[in-house]
Amino acid sequence: MKRTITLIALVAALLIPSMATAQRMPAKSSMKLSQFKAPAAAPVRAEEDPIMETPEGTLYDNMYASSFAYGLGWGDIYIQDVDGGIGKVVEGTDGNLYIYNPISQGYIWFSILPWIKAEPTDKGTYVVKLPQLYILDAGDPYYAYCMHYDEDEGMPVVEEEGEIEFTWEDGVLTQLGDKFIGLCDATADWFYMADQHIVYAPQNDVPITLSDSEYYIQSYTMTYLSDPTDLTKTKDRIVDVAIDGNDIYIGYLNDNTPNYIKGTLANGKATFPTRQYLGVDPYYNGHIYVLTGEAYVDAETYSSPVFNYNLNDEIVFSVDEDARHIVAEWPAAMITNVGPNTLSILNDYVGPGLEAFDEVPAVPATPLISAEDMTVNTTSGWVALRFTIPTTDVEGYKLNENKLYYNIILDDEVYTFDPETYIGLSTAMTDIPYNFQDNVNFDIYINNGRHTVYLYTTDFEFVGIQSIYTAGGEVNRSEIATVKNPSYSGIEETGIGAQAIATRYYDAFGRELPAAPATGLYLQRTTYSNGTTSTIKVVK
Questions:
Q1: Is the pLDDT of residue 468 over 90?
Q2: Between residues 34 and 183, the one the model is more confident about
Q3: Are 252 and 352 in contact (CB under 8 A)?
Q4: CA-to-CA distance for 112 and 114, rounded, in angstroms?
Q5: Chain centre to alpha carbon of residue 425
Q6: Which of 64, 70, 337, 364 has the highest Cβ tally under 10 A?
């Protein structure tokens, strides 16, 4: 569990409230590191490039990473026993060893993660000589530095130069000693992210995958408690259930790892053991497990009540005769978690009850988008769309989100998201799954139920959004919600013979800001006296 450190100077500088309880994994930030510290008077610029591509050599992929880490949150610093991170090692063709993302908290800030180099020694070990350029953020260099814990300071302090030693034996990378690898700016100013006691080991757990050709997989609505201050409030999600003799499986407990946990049916009960592996979640850069426990309302640890848990060995559901209702009563809980040993919660399902969802063909409701939901930058050649995909049909009945898709249509042609343009995709896509997010470049993402999609063209008159539902053996499409591209009304000529009469500012999620931020990324929309508007993306 994360333990928060109080640093008055840092909190005063950030003035950002904490967004998550300490045992829950923070979401990736779309903010820049430069927003958290004033730039140096004469910053040092990197002449080399960070190692972002996988080095040539033998790759040891999908390793299980653990460490002890300092992390930078929203308004505080915390320390954490990292469990279940994603590690990689390359035995380079040049004789060096390359280590992937050793500063574990870096995944909170960066989409594409870096490597650092370790050089061989005559003792058969490897040393990371620091500082090394770690990553570029908005063009600014950030470095991995050697650090040691200072008793007087009560935290790690930066060393001008240093080495961190590792052993590499039988596919296991192990750090020697107590030094930290920390993230600093070009002036060696620490960004409160650092790791020590790093270990990368092979991941031997294998997730359970099921196919429709081998199992009868049925959708269920899982309802669970959502508010520790009011145990009558619930949320729900669609999961998959398969029953094969005395074996029962539940899948889609985590959006990014739609694999299954396995239980046993006997005497009207379904028993699922704890610590079952779901696979890799690329968004959180972690190995995801399902833990079980008993929930309680914790009103003491944090500023407001939360669900907390006493972990146990299994969760037991009551199952009716035809298995249409599968219920685990309060305080039973299932938790999707990064790693199996330390609470780093992604989703928690308290008092989960599953009811069979009878899928029938249905026409999905029309997507929702308006002219205000489109931002066009003709100078840079991109369009940002924000829209809502209803999860109901035209009559208001709930749909299975796992079988709901959408198309973006430019004029009369369905838009293709190709991996050359969209670096977060591995293959070209036209039908976008409802829950899909680009976890690398954030060109496609969901925030509070609203979808945001970036298009890298402005050469169209109308954009349309259409939902597609594939349940019940049919493919049904919604009506197309259409918005006109405002650039066709002369945005490219706004500065000719017209005066700016109003300027408004928006963040990356489309929320209006009271003024232009001093640092960071924002959108500036200008209205001119001839009625036209222009929007530009600003990065400071």
A1: yes
A2: 183
A3: no
A4: 7
A5: 15
A6: 337
